[in-house]
Amino acid sequence: MNQARGEIAIEIDGSEHIMCLTLGALAELEARFECQSLRDLQARLKRLTASELLDVLAILIITKPATDALARLAPAVAAKAVAETFDAA
Question: Which residue, 26, 35, 46, 85, has fewest beta-carbon neighbours within 10 Å?
């Protein structure tokens, strides 16, 4: 994990996975949520459904776990990891 790059570790099913907000991830998030600007994206990310939170996690995780493993995460753990990833960027 490289904290200087803004990488955050999250444990999923006993394995550590790395999350990072990259330019590619931002572009993918803008497209997923049909946002025209980073300001629009910021506002949109404040009101996520559970399935949207899974999408955000999947986009931010560099070392991809199985999709069903993401679905088993506690919502608070998932939301905290996403928030930490954005804060680290």
Answer: 46
